[in-house]
Amino acid sequence: MRTEALRVVRAGALTTVQDLGRAGHAHLGVPRSGALDEAAHRLANRLLGNPETAATLETTLTGCAVRALRPVLAVVTGAPCRVTVDGRPAAWGQPVRVPAGAVLDVGAATHGVRSYLGFAGGVDAEEVLGSRATDLLSGLGPDPLRDGDTLALGAVPAAGSPAAPDAAPWVAPPRELVLPVTFGPRDDWFTPEGLRTLLTGTYRVSAASNRIGLRLEGPAPARAREGELASEGMVLGAVQVPPEGRPVVFLSDHPTTGGYPVIGVVHPAALGAMAQARPGTPVRFTPAGAVPAGR
Question: Which keywords does this Swiss-Prot/TrEMBL entry list (predicted)?
Answer without folding.
Answer: ATP-binding, Hydrolase, Nucleotide-binding, Transferase
